[in-house]
């Protein structure tokens, strides 16, 4: 099985290289309005944003920043298939302007934007990110009532394009081979992920101003979302590609991908990140199998029996739907004019 991964150094407000109805899934983390590390990026797109910030008009700056993101959401409506899913990782912002401190609810504004474009909101996910310091911003020390809660979570907002779910041909191998285990379903399809942590990205040798504009999420997040909301052979789009974490996840998960990124330096970083993609993809699949076998051992120790056998691996499974699960690992990566062509083979493991 071969997957393709196309990369564009371009502005995702115009996805002209992506055809209508050609993407099954979007997984991305945009720059967060009203987070200072992205002020310059938004100001480059609309110079009026700088004026609003300098004048202390936070609400106007917030809306102007989201107006720039809205142009990307317009494009997602066009390129996503009917029933396709968009997963938007975003955090709210807290900020003081003109000595006034408040929260800017990015998740609410993004949800409104997608609803305006005909997307159906689905239940979202919260995951806890590590904070920069153990100290909390109190506002008034230890004396009530003027302290503020510290934001320690981000949202994965989930939307479906149109009201209908995607349809597949009966018994489609690419769908059943992409099944997840019963216990993975129970862990993944919950609205709070407490087992995912943020991570620092390896950006050695990258200019300071570029490093400061990277806000990559942990690989576990896009990998889970790809497994949850796509099948083998589907295409995932990340219009805010950054250091390519979504593409790494797609390579590990056996999906095609498209990435858009304004900063070409990140593509150089990605070249280093894929050096060991074969090992990484193999490790991801084997870890899932090992965790499943640990789950089986615990069930058996409790006296429970699993009613089905996996076809491709020597392990029982809970349901018939997961019996055909087949993991893929990367065998080779070849550079192309527009990105990468990746050859996948079935994951083989020891018993």
From TrEMBL:
<keyword id="KW-0238">DNA-binding</keyword>
<dbReference type="Pfam" id="PF01555">
    <property type="entry name" value="N6_N4_Mtase"/>
</dbReference>
<dbReference type="InterPro" id="IPR017985">
    <property type="entry name" value="MeTrfase_CN4_CS"/>
</dbReference>
<comment type="similarity">
    <text>Belongs to the N(4)/N(6)-methyltransferase family. N(4) subfamily.</text>
</comment>
<dbReference type="GO" id="GO:0003677">
    <property type="term" value="F:DNA binding"/>
</dbReference>
<dbReference type="GO" id="GO:0008170">
    <property type="term" value="F:N-methyltransferase activity"/>
</dbReference>
<keyword id="KW-0949">S-adenosyl-L-methionine</keyword>
<keyword id="KW-0489">Methyltransferase</keyword>
<dbReference type="InterPro" id="IPR029063">
    <property type="entry name" value="SAM-dependent_MTases_sf"/>
</dbReference>
<feature type="domain" description="DNA methylase N-4/N-6">
    <location>
        <begin position="23"/>
        <end position="271"/>
    </location>
</feature>
<dbReference type="GO" id="GO:0032259">
    <property type="term" value="P:methylation"/>
</dbReference>
<dbReference type="GO" id="GO:0015667">
    <property type="term" value="F:site-specific DNA-methyltransferase (cytosine-N4-specific) activity"/>
</dbReference>
<keyword id="KW-0680">Restriction system</keyword>
<dbReference type="InterPro" id="IPR001091">
    <property type="entry name" value="RM_Methyltransferase"/>
</dbReference>
<dbReference type="InterPro" id="IPR002941">
    <property type="entry name" value="DNA_methylase_N4/N6"/>
</dbReference>
<keyword id="KW-0808">Transferase</keyword>
<dbReference type="GO" id="GO:0009307">
    <property type="term" value="P:DNA restriction-modification system"/>
</dbReference>
<protein>
    <recommendedName>
        <fullName>Type II methyltransferase</fullName>
        <ecNumber>2.1.1.113</ecNumber>
    </recommendedName>
</protein>
């Amino acid at each position: 099985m071969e997957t393709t991964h196309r990369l564009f150094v371009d502005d995702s407000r115009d996805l002209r290289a992506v055809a209508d109805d050609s993407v099954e899934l979007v997984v991305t983390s945009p720059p967060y309005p009203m987070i200072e590390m992205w002020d310059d990026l938004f100001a480059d797109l609309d110079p009026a944003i700088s004026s609003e910030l300098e004048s202390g008009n936070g609400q106007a700056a917030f809306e102007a920043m989201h107006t720039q993101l809205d142009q990307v959401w317009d494009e997602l409506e066009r390129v996503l298939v009917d029933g396709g899913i968009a997963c938007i990782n975003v955090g709210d912002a807290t900020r003081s302007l003109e000595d006034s401190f408040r929260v800017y609810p990015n998740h609410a504004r993004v949800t409104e934007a997608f609803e305006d474009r005909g997307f159906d909101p689905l239940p979202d996910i919260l995951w806890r990110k590590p904070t920069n310091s153990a100290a909390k911003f109190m506002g008034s020390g230890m004396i009530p009532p003027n302290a503020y809660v510290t934001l320690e979570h981000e949202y994965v907002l989930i939307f479906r394009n149109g009201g209908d779910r995607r349809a597949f041909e009966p018994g489609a191998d690419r769908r059943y081979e992409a099944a997840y285990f019963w216990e993975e379903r129970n862990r993944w399809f919950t609205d709070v992920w407490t087992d995912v942590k943020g991570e620092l990205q390896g950006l050695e040798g990258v200019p300071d101003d570029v490093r400061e504009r990277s806000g990559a999420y942990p690989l576990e997040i896009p990998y889970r979302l790809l497994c949850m909301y796509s099948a083998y052979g589907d295409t995932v789009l990340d219009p805010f590609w950054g250091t390519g974490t979504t593409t790494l996840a797609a390579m590990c998960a056996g999906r095609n991908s498209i990435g858009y990124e304004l900063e070409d330096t990140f593509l150089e970083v990605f070249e280093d990140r894929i050096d060991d993609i074969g090992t990484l993809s193999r490790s991801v699949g084997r870890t899932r199998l090992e965790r499943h076998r640990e789950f089986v051992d615990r069930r058996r120790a409790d006296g429970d029996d699993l009613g089905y056998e996996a076809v491709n691996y020597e392990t029982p499974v809970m349901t018939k739907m997961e019996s055909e699960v087949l993991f893929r690992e990367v065998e080779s990566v070849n550079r192309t004019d527009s990105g990468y062509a990746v050859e996948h083979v079935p994951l083989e493991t020891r018993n």
